C-alpha cells in the first residue's frame, strides 16, 4: 500500500509485479535452503558443520571490500537510467574492471593475512586442520567468482528484471541442495573438501548464466573493449570509498561476530549460531524481496526529482517491511523448540533455541534498514552518514569482545547487536531528514510508533500462547500461526494504515466485488 498522487500508476504496478516474482522465488528458496541445512547438519555432523560455518564466515568477511562497489554500481546504473541512460556502457565496463581489481586484492589478502589468522588464531579440532586449509582455498575461489558476478547481478536488479532474478536464485538453491545430497555418496575425499569443490562448480555455472542473460538483454553489459573511464571510475570509487567504511563496520557485526564466537566458544557454538543465522537469512529474505522491488524506485524517483514520492516510499516500505517480518517472527518464537526439531530432526546443536529467538528479534529491527538506506544512497551525499554509521556499528565488535573477555555468554553478541541497531535507526532518520527532507517527527509518528504498538501487542501474544497452549506439537504451531494472522490483520488496518490508505483499500475491495 504505497500511497502517492504524483507518480504514475505503473510505478506501483511494477513494484507489485516484481514483488510477486520475488516471493515465488522466496517460497522455493526458503524451503530448499532450510532442508539443505538439515541435510548438511546430518551428513557433516555438529562439529564439521560448525567448522564450515566458521571458515565460510571468515572468508566472506573479507568481501566487505566488494560490497560498497556493488551498491555503487546499482546506484549509478539506476541514477543514469533516470537521466536517460547515456552512460550505461561506460559505467558497466568501468565497474567490472573495478571488481576485477577488488577480487585480486581480496585474493592476495586472504592468501597472506587470512591464511595466517586461520591457522594461528581460530579454534578448530586438530583432526580437521588439513581439510580446513583446503576448504579455505576453495571458498576463496568461490568468493572471487561471486565478486566478478556482481556487476551483472547489479544490472539485473537495476533493470528490475525480477523474474530472471527469481529463477536464477531458485536454480542456485537447488544446486546447493544437490551439493548437499552429493555428500551422501561415498567418495574417497573428505566431506568438507568435497562440499567446497561442488560449491566452486555451481558458482561457475551461475556466473555463466548471469553473463549470457545480461549480454543478451542489456547491450551495455557487453564488454567489447576494456575501456577504463577515469571520470566514471572516480565517481564510483568516491561513492564506494565512503560506503567502504559502512561495509567494513557491517562485516565486523556479522562475520566478525562468528569469528569471535569461534575463538571464545569453539565450533559447537558456531554450529548453534549458524542455525540461527540460517533462520535469520530465511526470514530476512522475506522482507528483502519486498525491498528489492521497491528500492530501485526510491533511487529512480529521487533522480527524477519526485521527492514526495521518494519520502512516501521510504516511510511505507519501512513500515510494511517490519509488519511483514512480524508475520514470520512471532509464530516462530512461539514454537521455536518444535520448529527446530521438525527442521533438524534429533540433531539440534545446544543453545540453538535462544540464539534463534534473539536473532529473530534482531531481524525485526533490521527490516527498517533497506528503504531508509536506499533513500540516503539515492542522494549520493553519504560521506558524513557512512562515518557516523561505521562508528556506531563498530560498537558491535568492540562491545562483544569486551563482554566475551569478561566472561559473558555467547548470547550477548546478539543482544548487543539489537541495542546497536536501535542507534543505527536513529542515525538513519537524521540523515534522511538532511537528504530528502523527510520529517523525523512524521517518520516516527507514522512509521515507528505504529510498529512499536504492534510489537507490544505481539509480545503479549507470545507470552499468552506459551502459557496457554501445550508445547512442541503441530496443534500449537497451526493454532498460534492462524490466530496471530487474524490478530495482525486488524491491528495493521487500524494502527498502521493511514486514513487515505484505508480509503483506497476499501475502494479496491468494492471494485473487486462489482467486477
Describe this entry's structure for a reader.
Helix 1 runs antiparallel to helix 4 and helix 14 (383-405) runs antiparallel to helix 15. With 515 residues, this protein is mainly alpha-helical. It has helices at residues 9-61, 67-82, 88-120, 129-158, 162-182, 191-217, 230-253, 255-265, 267-303, 307-334, 336-344, 352-366, 369-379, 383-405, 412-436, 440-468, 474-496, 499-514. It has one domain (9-514). The chain is globular, with a radius of gyration of 23 Å. Helix content is 84%, strand content 0%. Residues 1-9 and 509-515 have low confidence and may be disordered.
Write the layout of secondary structure elements.
Elements: H1 9-61, H2 67-82, H3 88-120, H4 129-158, H5 162-182, H6 191-217, H7 230-253, H8 255-265, H9 267-303, H10 307-334, H11 336-344, H12 352-366, H13 369-379, H14 383-405, H15 412-436, H16 440-468, H17 474-496, H18 499-514
In short:
By secondary structure, this protein is mostly helical.
Question: What labels describe this entry?
Answer:
disordered N terminus; globular; 515 residues; mainly alpha; disordered C terminus
Shape: globular
How many individual domains?
A: 1
* Low-pLDDT windows of residues: 1-9, 509-515
How many angstroms does the end-to-end distance come to?
Answer: 21 Å
Give the fraction of residues assigned to helices. Answer: over 70%
Q: What's the pLDDT, averaged over the residues?
A: 81
Broad structural category: mainly alpha
β-strand percent reads under 5%
Radius of gyration: 23 Å
The strand count comes to 0
Count of alpha and pi helical runs: 18
Order of helices and strands: HHHHHHHHHHHHHHHHHH
Profile the largest sheet.
none
Amino acid at each position: 500500500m504505497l500511497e502517492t498522487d504524483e507518480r504514475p500508476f505503473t510505478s506501483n504496478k511494477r513494484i507489485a509485479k516484481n514483488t510477486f516474482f520475488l516471493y515465488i522465488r522466496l517460497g522455493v528458496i526458503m524451503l530448499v535452503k532450510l532442508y539443505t541445512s538439515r541435510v548438511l547438519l546430518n551428513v557433516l555432523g555438529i562439529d564439521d558443520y560448525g567448522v564450515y560455518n566458521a571458515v565460510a564466515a571468515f572468508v566472506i568477511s573479507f568481501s566487505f571490500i566488494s560490497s560498497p562497489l556493488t551498491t555503487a554500481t546499482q546506484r549509478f546504473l539506476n541514477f543514469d537510467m533516470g537521466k536517460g541512460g547515456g552512460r550505461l556502457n561506460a559505467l558497466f565496463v568501468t565497474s567490472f574492471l573495478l571488481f576485477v581489481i577488488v577480487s585480486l586484492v581480496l585474493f592476495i589478502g586472504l592468501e597472506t593475512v587470512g591464511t595466517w589468522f586461520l591457522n594461528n588464531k581460530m579454534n578448530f579440532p586438530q583432526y580437521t586442520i588439513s581439510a580446513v586449509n583446503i576448504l579455505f582455498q576453495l571458498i576463496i575461489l568461490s568468493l572471487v567468482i561471486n565478486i566478478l558476478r556482481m556487476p551483472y547481478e547489479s544490472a539485473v536488479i537495476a533493470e528490475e528484471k525480477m523474474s530472471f532474478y527469481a529463477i536464477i536464485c531458485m536454480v542456485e538453491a537447488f544446486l546447493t541442495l544437490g551439493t548437499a545430497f552429493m555428500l551422501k555418496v561415498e567418495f574417497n575425499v573428505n566431506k568438507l573438501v568435497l562440499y567446497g569443490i561442488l560449491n566452486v562448480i555451481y558458482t561457475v555455472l551461475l556466473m555463466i548464466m548471469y553473463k549470457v542473460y545480461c549480454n543478451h538483454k542489456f547491450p551495455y553489459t557487453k564488454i567489447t573493449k576494456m575501456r577504463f573511464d577515469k571520470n566514471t571510475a572516480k565517481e564510483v570509487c568516491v561513492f564506494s570509498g565512503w560506503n567502504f567504511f559502512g561495509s567494513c563496520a557491517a562485516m565486523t557485526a556479522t562475520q566478525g561476530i562468528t569469528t569471535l564466537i569461534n575463538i571464545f566458544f569453539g565450533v559447537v557454538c558456531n554450529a548453534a549460531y549458524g542455525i540461527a543465522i540460517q533462520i535469520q537469512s530465511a526470514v530476512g529474505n522475506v522482507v528483502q524481496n519486498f525491498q528489492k522491488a521497491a528500492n530501485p524506485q526510491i533511487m529512480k524517483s529521487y533522480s527524477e526529482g519526485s521527492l514526495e514520492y521518494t519520502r512516501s516510499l521510504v516511510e511505507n516500505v519501512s513500515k510494511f517491511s517490519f509488519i511483514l517480518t512480524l508475520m514470520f517472527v512471532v509464530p516462530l518464537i512461539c514454537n521455536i523448540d518444535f520448529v527446530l526439531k521438525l527442521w533438524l530432526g534429533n540433531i539440534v546443536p545446544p543453545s540453538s533455541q535462544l540464539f534463534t529467538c534473539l536473532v529473530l528479534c534482531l531481524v525485526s529491527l533490521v527490516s527498517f534498514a533497506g528503504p531508509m538506506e536506499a533513500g540516503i544512497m539515492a542522494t549520493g551525499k553519504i560521506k558524513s552518514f557512512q562515518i557516523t554509521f561505521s562508528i556506531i556499528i563498530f560498537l558491535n565488535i568492540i562491545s562483544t569482545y569486551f563482554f566475551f573477555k569478561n566472561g559473558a555468554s555467547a548470547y550477548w553478541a546478539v543482544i548487543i547487536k539489537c541495542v546497536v541497531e536501535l542507534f543505527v535507526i536513529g542515525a538513519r532518520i537524521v540523515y534522511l531528514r538532511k537528504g530528502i527532507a523527510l520529517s523525523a517527527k512524521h517518520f516516527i509518528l507514522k512509521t515507528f510508533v505504529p510498529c512499536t504498538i504492534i510489537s507490544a501487542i505481539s509480545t503479549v501474544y507470545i507470552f499468552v500462547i506459551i502459557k496457554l497452549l501445550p508445547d512442541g506439537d503441530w496443534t500449537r504451531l497451526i493454532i498460534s500461526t492462524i490466530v496471530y494472522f487474524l490478530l495482525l490483520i486488524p491491528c495493521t488496518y487500524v494502527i498502521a494504515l493511514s486514513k487515505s490508505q484505508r480509503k483506497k483499500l476499501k475502494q479496491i475491495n468494492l471494485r473487486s466485488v462489482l467486477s
